[in-house]
Design a protein that fits this description.
Belongs to the Nth/MutY family. It comes from Gloeothece citriformis (strain PCC 7424). This protein is of the alpha+beta class and about 375 residues long. The chain has two domains: about 210 residues, Hypothetical protein, domain 2 (Endonuclease III, domain 1), CATH 1.10.340.30; about 130 residues, Nucleoside Triphosphate Pyrophosphohydrolase (Alpha-Beta Complex), CATH 3.90.79. Helices cover about 45% and strands about 15% of the residues. The strands form two sheets. The protein has a four-stranded mixed β-sheet with strand order 4-1-6-5, sandwiched between helices. A three-stranded antiparallel β-sheet has the order 3-2-7, with no helix packed on it. Helix 8 packs across helix 11. The structure holds a DNA duplex (11 and 11 nucleotides).
Length: about 375
DNA sequence: AATACGTGGTC
DNA sequence: TGACCAAGTAT
């Protein structure tokens, strides 16, 4: 007995989902084999990221880093370059760090014990369950966005999922099919992704329609309850594309453990109140790099939305005048040609700047 | 417990 | 354009 359901009902519910999955489950690249490394890579990439976005990254990644050893031996810069555009770059840094740890301590073998998997950086409860069930068919439950939505509707949860995590985990634990946990977990996620969608759920195609409390109450489109959101600030950033007399451009590498850590960027900083963009850029470059520049024409303004704030990058062409550049507020600095920029990993907002520079050069 | 952490898609 | 969300984890 669980969640008010008799044991016989639970057996039926499991079978309904497994049957549905067999007929309607998605064919995804990482389901073709059971190498825990490949499953691991897919699970990390899929954190907060849609399947459609992940697939090309996943295939390129395994081509470049086919094994844990290949990943461990690679340079972090190359790892980040392979991750460029996927976002949440700590995932790539953690994947790299964990691969090196596995080479050092596990002879490069991915562990099959929950406690050990959970101890790896970047792997939490859901990712651990996803890996252990998919790679080893272990009955470890999951609670990702899809499962939260499916289960919230299934029990007509009257609060946002984040307010009922223990209850939802308990339900996911109780439902999982002990004979076929791999297909059960994958089926649960597929159900959320293709049938029990956030908007316009296709309840007429759902194997759990008869047992879904939200459906039976006619409130499925109102669930799950939305999380409360806080307003996000909007920052204006002055950005410098600094040229020297050889026509090279100055770029810097961001501190490894901060936002966009390890990625390269065009230097700059936040506009202070009552400061012009020109003043801001000149001040920031002196503070961060210790050099004097002349701020020239406006190149482009890039608007970009992150999760918890938005920015307008106001980019100006600048000329290097004097002083020895020093990495004061960053890890490293380099003078590079326009053509060399693509060798470095850049965040998306900076890639828009590079595109603009290429257009200017072509004129 | 609340916040930091990217990007692409939708309406 | 702005708000919201998608295979979450770390602190």
């Amino acid at each position: 007995m669980l969640a008010g359901l008799p044991g016989l009902e639970v057996v039926k519910i499991r079978q309904l989902l497994l049957l549905w999955y067999k007929e309607k489950g998605r064919d995804l690249p990482w389901r073709h084999q059971k190498d825990p490394y490949c499953i691991w890579v897919s699970e990390i990439m899929l954190q907060q990221t849609q399947v459609k976005t992940v697939i090309p990254f996943y295939q390129r990644w395994l081509q470049r880093f086919p094994t844990i050893k290949d990943l461990a031996l690679a340079d972090l810069q190359e790892v980040l370059k392979a991750w460029e555009g996927l976002g949440y770059y700590a995932r790539a840094r953690n994947l790299h760090k964990a691969a090196q740890y596995l080479i050092q301590n596990y002879n490069g073998i991915f562990p099959d014990r929950l406690e050990e998997v959970l101890s790896l950086p970047g792997i939490g409860r859901t990712t651990a369950g996803g890996i252990l069930s998919a790679a080893f068919n272990q009955p470890i439950s999951i609670l990702d966005g899809n499962v939260k939505r499916v289960l919230s509707r299934f029990i007509a949860l009257s609060v946002p999922p984040s307010k009922a995590l223990p209850q939802l985990w308990e339900l996911s634990d109780s439902l999982i099919d002990l004979e076929n946990p791999r297909d059960f977990n994958q089926g649960l996620m597929d159900l959320g992704a293709t049938v029990c969608t956030r908007k316009n759920p296709k309840c007429d195609q759902c194997p759990w329609q008869g047992d879904c409390q939200a459906y039976n109450k006619g409130i499925q489109s109102q669930l799950p309850m939305s999380e409360k959101s806080t307003p996000i600030p909007h920052k204006k950033i002055g950005v410098a594309v600094i040229y020297n007399d050889q026509g090279q451009i100055l770029i810097d590498r961001r501190p490894t453990d901060k936002m966009l850590g390890g990625l390269w960027e065009f230097p700059g900083g936040k506009l202070e109140p009552d400061e012009t963009v020109e003043e801001c850029i000149k001040r920031e470059i002196l503070e961060e790099l210790g050099i004097i520049i002349e701020v020239n024409e406006h190149i482009i303004t890039v608007d970009h939305a992150y999760t918890h704030f938005r920015v307008s990058l106001i980019v100006h062409a600048c000329r290097y005048l004097g002083g020895e550049p020093k990495p004061i507020g960053c890890e490293e600095i380099r003078w590079v040609n326009l053509d060399q920029l693509e060798e470095f990993p850049f965040p998306k907002a900076n890639i828009k700047i590079i595109e603009a520079l290429k257009l200017i050069k072509d004129c």
